[in-house]
Structures are given as C-alpha cells and as structure tokens.
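Troubleshooting log. The previous run stalled partway through. Resubmitting the same two chains, unchanged.
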Amino acid sequence: MSSLEIKDLHASVVTDEGAKEILKGVDLTINSGEIHAIMGPNGSGKSTLSYAIAGHPKYQVTSGEVLLDGENVLDMTVDERGRAGLFLAMQYPVEVPGVSMSNFLRTAATSVRGEAPKLRHWVKEVKDEMSKLDISADFAERSVNEGFSGGEKKRHEILQLGLLKPKMAILDETDSGLDVDALRVVSKGVNDFKASNDAGIMLITHYSRILKHVQPDFVHVFSEGRIVESGGPELADALEESGYVRFTGGKQEEAAAR
Amino acid sequence: MTVTENTVPAGSADHNTVAEAAEATVPAVSKGERFTSYDVRAFEVPGGREENWRFTPMKRLRGLHDGSAVANGEVKVDADVASELRVETVGREDGRLGVAGVPSDRIAAQAYSSFSTATVLTVPKETKASAPSVIRLTGPGEGNTAYGHLQVRLEQFAEAVVVLDHQGSGTYADNVEFVIGDSAKLTVVSVQDWADDAVHVSEQHLKLGRDATLKHTLVTLGGDLVRISPTATFADKGGDVELLGLYFSDAGQHQEHRLFVDHAVPNCKSNVVYKGALQGDGAHSVWIGDVLIRAAAEATDTFELNRNLVLTEGARADSVPNLEIETGEIEGAGHASATGRFDDEQLFYLQSRGIVEEQARRLVVRGFFHEILMKIDVPEVRERLEAAIEAELEAVGA
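Second attempt completed without errors. Output:
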C-alpha cells in the first residue's frame, strides 16, 4: 500500500524573463489502486504538475510538499525519484540518438530493481510486454524514440510502465495524438498494469475519451494552477457536456490560446 | 539537385541548447587555386592570420612552421602486417614517393623537405590482405623533433585494412600518402593517441584510382596540439571516399581536422562524417570541411556533416564547412554542421527512469559516437575506442 501526497504545491517555470508561477497550491492524495483523472484546459498547469513531481530542472518548486509513502520526493534527485517508485509517462517522450531501446530498457530496469534482471527471463519479459502493446520486435534495436511516430512513442512509454512497475504512475496526456486503435491498445496496457500491480495512477488529460477505456475512481478539474473541483467519474461526463467554461470563469478561450 | 543545410542540434531543448550552426562561407580564394609545393622554401612563414592558420595556436607549434624545429630524433615505425603485404624502408630518391599529392602548407612541405627515410607499404595487385595491418608510430620522445613520410599503396584490385597507431611523446610532422589503384579497396583508421605533450602536424594525401573505394577514419584522442589535413583527390571516374572522424578534446588540447575533397572528375562520391566531444577548460576543436566540385565533375554526389558535443564550460568548437560548386550537373551536394551543449532533456528523460546522472551522461555520449563507431569495421580498433571513450568520461567524472 503506497500513497502520494501533494500538499499546497507551488511551482514556477524558469524562463529568460524570470520565474513565473504556474502551480498555485495543489492538494491531492493518491493511494494504491486508485486512478485519479486530472482534467483541465490547455495552459492550466497540468503538465507542470507532472514535471514538478518528476523533478524537471525547468520547474522550481517554491513551496509545498510531495510525499511518497511519507518521504519527501522534492529532496530527491530525478533518478532517486524514479528508483523510489515514481514514473512519468511523458507527453513528448525525448529522442536519445544512438542508444538502443533494449539497452535503455535494461539499464532502467537494472536501476529501478537494484540488480540486473536475469537475461533469459528479461528477454521473455520484454517480448511479452511488447506483444501486448503490438510493438514489433525490431523496435528493440532502434534508438530510443528516434523516428517513432507519436503513437509509437506513447506505446513505448506504457511499455516502460509495465516493465518498471512503479508505485505511482503519472500519465501526462498519454491519449493525445492516438488514433482509436492505438488508444485501445494503450488503455489496455494501463489497465493491465493496474490489475497486476498495486499502484496508483494520475491520469492527466484534456479530453474525456480515454476515460471511456480507463475507468477513473476520482476526477479533478484543474484550472489556473490548482484543483478547483473534485468528484467521481460523473464529473467527467459533466465536463464532456458543458466544457471547462464554468470552472475557468469564461476564460477558456484565452487559456486554450496560450 | 543541390541541397545545402545548416542544422541545429536534434532534440527539443531549445531553451538549453546553445547552437552555433556554422555559416557556409565561400572562401575569398577558391580551394582549387591553393598553392602547393614540395619545397619548403616556396612557402612564406605563416604568421597565424592566414585562412589556413587562423585557428591554430602558432606558439604551440614549436617552430615546425618557421624552420626553427630541427630534427633531432626519429619516429619509430613498427609494422605488423598481413603476410601478403610488402613493407620497405626507402630513401628520399624513391620515385614512388609524392605521387598522391603535393604539400599544401609550410609544415607539410617542411616535413617533405626534411625526412630521411620513408616507409612504403604495398598491397600487390589482385591481393586481398588476410588480416588487418597495423603500423605503430612512436614519437621521438619529449623535447625531440622528427619528420617522417609514409606511403600505403594498393595496386589494382587489391584490398586491405590498415591501422596507423600514433603514440608517444615529442614533436612530429609528416606526410602520409594513400595511393589506391583502380578498383582497389582500402579501409584505414588513423589513431592519434599521443601523450599529453605531443605536437603532431600531418597532411594525409588520399588519391583514388578509377572505381577505387576508400574508407578513411581519423580518431584523435591525445596530444597537446594535433592538426591533420586529409586531402582526397580522384585520378579517374567512379571513386568513392568516406571520411569519418571522431575526436575527444580535453582541457588544454587543440585538435584540428582540415578536410579537402577535390572533385575534378565525373561520377565520384564523397561522404564526410566527423563527430567530436569536448570537455574541460581550453579544450579546442577545429573542423574545416572544404569540398570543391569542379566544372568537369559531373554527377558528383557529396555530403559532409560535423557535430560537436560540448560537455563542459570553457571548451570551444569551431566548425566551418565550405562548398564550392562549379557545375549544376551533380547528383547532390550538401553539408550540415552543429555544435550543441549537453541536452538536459535527454538527461531528464533517462534519469526519470531511475538511471543515475553519471550513467545517463555516458549513455548519451556513447550514443552520440555510436554512428561513427559502428562504421569502424575493425573490431579490435572499435573496442579500443569504446574503452578510450569510457576512460575520457571517467577522467572528467561525467
């Protein structure tokens, strides 16, 4: 049983013009076995929340706490957070030329598990996970994310989720840019992960369509850098009906244009 | 079709990537009209402001450029070659010497005017060497100066892999000739793994016969100042040259690679890929890529690329591609050059998967060189280079 507690989190983005506050007091607790959907318009700070928790150098936490099983992850380096059991499936996975996917996956698994997985088991494990996500075997020898389509990148993020088995997974707009078939495959990957691991999931999304495949336990509306309303799955339906306008004070257009 | 591109480094990190995409410049004087001579007296002593010398720290040349560096030592040449090959030590008067090219700067001419004996390695016609051949050149020792000359000649339809392995201390200037006969095929890797004090200035003359193939790789790791100038020329149609380079410049090191590919006949190909990493205060790399496509060189296909990865503050990479095209009837011609700092986005991505920073950095640098290393088809050399890169990364604690 694990928990991720976010307490009054404030964070700024570091730009050439100075720091600009994006997160303005986020409070949220996620327990193992729970899926929390974070929904909000573009520019509301959803992605910043994911990056701040993962420790991206561009974002500076100015106050608040993020506790994973009581340990403050904000005191940890990025890789320590990964080894502590945090995982971020990125909206735009980064290309690393010349580093093969298989080398990368094995290095990551070795880091997270604390020892190199036995080769024979590992090969089978990777193969099984890849076939579940309809990833062809030749991807193993390609450079990390290089030349992958948007959908291929997202599948590889979920592949890592299945192999690294984190305690808490943050999925940042994993559904964006996916066609219907890819969305189904990726959603199944997320559901399989949840079914076979006692993990918590923060599912960040702009649209409600992924929630038809991945059933959330809680839905939170994110606006202007914080959670403005929380509820059950029915809240997503309400958003589908009426949009974000009533939570953003009619500023949806402005927010979306940012 | 003509393609000219200047690219900035790959990766989405526009906020932390400092790109110095080099401007393509057409030199004031065409490369085709450059002065060459075997006689050192025909050259003026360079002052350092000349185009050819403007990146080189002249004071660190120890007088190689002005005649004050008098030979007082020898470079030891050890040849461990395949049994089908012939190794000779010959005098200056040997008529085969100097056929691959004429010295184009004062130091090359000084070396040509000063060497006492030359080494000639011959691969007889229609012979395929059964194993890679290694020629080890050991410097004259700290405080000593030597001049040398080496020729590798492949007769027609010959095939060989040759490794030149430079190591040791001292000051050394030489000319190296690769004479590749019709339809012959040569793979050469020249490793400059000098001790920290060494100064090495070399002109390498690559001359390809009809339908000849050359894969030429320069690897520069050591030395205080290393300046290598490979010039590729085609004696007849159908030549195919691939020029690869890998360098790792540490604090205080000056590593300069000046390439010139002279397309004067039709239907030849050239492909240049050089990659360098720099770390430490005063590390300086210079890459000059001159390609000239003369009016007669129809159906030429050429591309050149230089990438530099600056790992720490205080290091500097200069990269200057020059492309001169005198005919429109070509297959393709282009170049790309980029210098970038370490990509924080790549580091973040790898670290977020639990990989410690030090290991993540190594993965990225290894990945950067991967393209070149994979093309070095001499396993012993490739393994040694992989180990050398690891050692370089250890040294800085990256």
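Takeaways: The two ends of chain B are 43 Å apart (CA to CA). The CA atoms of residues 210 and 236 of chain B lie 5 Å apart.
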